[in-house]
Design goal:
- The structure is a single chain.
- The chain is α+β, with helices and mostly antiparallel strands.
- The protein has one domain: Lipoprotein localisation LolA/LolB/LppX (outer membrane lipoprotein receptor (LolB), chain A, Clam), CATH 2.50.20.10.
- The chain is 21% helix and 43% strand.
- The chain is built from five helices and eleven strands; from the N terminus they run ααββββββαααβββββ.
- A hairpin with a 3-residue loop joins strand 4 and strand 5.
Length: 247
């Protein structure tokens, strides 16, 4: 019995060394280890991107079983400035935001109206397009232009890291919290909702976001937005060009 004691101690010592080494390797990897640190890393990543592109879907669930599914695509270049967000509704409507070095522009199929937003007052092209695009315009674009919008998409109160999950074959950090809209002029908060976001553990790009609004029992009010992002792709000028169709 006495001869086995050193062996047991040695086993415990080796186990402790292994655990310490694994923790040290994880820390050295540079991966943030808290919800807010991951959110900040994602904000910084988008703010530093030279270019970006994605495709995605928006699933809107409401009532007891109703749902609509829409699609979108984004192309972005920081310098020279190029931007295009195209949103296509399930019923056939279409909304486009695009930009050149001089201005942002919007066009809506329903009204056949083109609106120009010359520099420097160009942010309303994005901030006022949220309702028409089921919130898509206020998501990734607010990260790419983080200084203008203070990274609005990832403004999550009391964020909690809930572990990792696979989204489209990619390992993601899952973070939940609360979000709301704020009227800058009055400070009034509205549109409270639970938010869960999945951030790619390797690229720190957002791959999925679920927003859940309060409803009466038996009712649903949930928006799920999924992204297939590409960081710093090479994009040609055709990616940003748009000519509104004739009325």
């Amino acid at each position: 019995m006495n001869e086995m004691i050193p062996a047991r101690r040695q086993t415990k010592l080796l186990a402790s060394v292994l655990v310490f080494s694994l923790l040290e390797l994880f820390a050295m990897s540079g991966h943030p280890q808290s919800a807010e640190a991951i959110l900040q890393k994602s904000r910084d990543t988008y703010a530093q991107m030279r270019s970006y592109a994605d495709t995605g879907d928006v699933l809107v669930e409401y009532g007891t079983s109703s749902q609509d599914k829409h699609s979108f695509s984004t192309a972005f270049n920081r310098s020279p400035r190029g931007f295009r967000l195209e949103f296509n509704k399930q019923a056939g409507d279409r909304y486009v935001i695009w930009a050149d070095p001089d201005a942002f522009h919007t066009w809506w199929k329903t009204t056949s109206q083109k609106t120009d937003y010359p520099n420097p007052n160009n942010t309303p092209a994005i901030s006022m397009s949220g309702p028409t695009t089921v919130g898509v315009a206020e998501k990734i674009p607010t990260l790419l232009y983080g200084k203008a919008f203070e990274s609005a998409m990832l403004k999550i109160n009391a964020p909690v890291l809930q572990g990792s999950e696979q989204v489209g074959g990619h390992t993601c950090d899952r973070i939940s919290g609360q979000a709301f809209d704020l009227y800058a002029a009055t400070g009034h908060k509205t549109n409270f909702r639970k938010v869960t976001v999945w951030i790619d553990a390797d690229s720190f790009a957002v791959r999925k976001m679920v927003e859940e609004f309060d409803t009466s029992p038996g009712q649903r009010n949930r928006i799920t937005t999924t992204f297939e992002p590409r960081s710093n792709p090479t994009l040609d000028t055709a990616s940003f060009a748009f000519a509104p169709p004739a009325s």
